[in-house]
Amino acid sequence: GSDVSGEVIAVESGCQRLRRGDRVWGDIGANAFFPNGTQTKELGAYGTYAVALETQLGVFPETLGYVEAGTLPKVSLTSYKALVWYAGAPWKTDDTVVLVLGGSGGTGTVGIQLAKAFGASKVITTTSEANAAYCRSLGADEVIDYHVANWWDVLQPDSVDVVYDTVGQRGTADRAMKIIRTNGSFVTIAGSLSNHPKPGVHQHFFINSDTNLDNYGLLDDLSELAQGGRLRMPSINGTYALSDVAEAFQQSAGGHVVGKIAIRVD
């Protein structure tokens, strides 16, 4: 498990930010290396107690309960990094158009909200008609039903500034190049980059777990957004006991979860 929310029960003497009793959230699923260079992955969220670096945790706001706070860190950090590190957010112009592919999933849910919070004038997303109202409630201005139409057919050339791909469908990057304006960005967390990049368009692939050892500053930014009502997880498609985690994974593997699934350890 990677996402955690809970109460700090003990800190080492060197900790400077957190104290016992703090309500914290974080993503402790970090790709790391042993001293001999062997790669490993830090996990441990699926338990009554978890151990984390102080730099991996932030204090979450009173506007969130433990369950909702526990669903947000990974997808929020992923979408924050995608848009801020790789797509130029927050945007300074008043005509920035962002396409979020897969708007009803976890990263898409947050991606839509953050795109709006970071100044996008228009957010377009893809989802099924059944989830269109949900995506609009998050801030999407236009919803393309992927069962009915292809986004690359609907959108005009040079009409979008940022494509944030949370789906990873084959050929996405090459199709995105046609609709992205000069100086725009394609960012994927699930697919491949274009073999024929468009001049003047930036493209990036990244894995959030590669940068998960020092997130506290970003978590503080996300906490401020949540406190202001601009970041939530309004759809939790099931809350499972720790003993039922395998069932939760089975539901997730179906690929139709709207928002997130939560695991309770109490």
UniProtKB/TrEMBL annotation:
Q: Which InterPro entries match?
A: ER, GroES-like_sf, NAD(P)-bd_dom_sf, YIM1/Zinc_Alcohol_DH_Fams
Single GO cellular component annotation? mitochondrion
- Protein origin, superkingdom: Eukaryota
Which stretches make up the Enoyl reductase (ER) domain? 1-263
The molecular function terms of the Gene Ontology recorded here are: oxidoreductase activity
Q: What Pfam families does its record include?
A: ADH_zinc_N_2
Q: What is this protein called?
A: Enoyl reductase (ER) domain-containing protein
Species the sequence originates in: Lotharella globosa
Q: What is the lineage of its organism?
A: Eukaryota, Sar, Rhizaria, Cercozoa, Chlorarachniophyceae
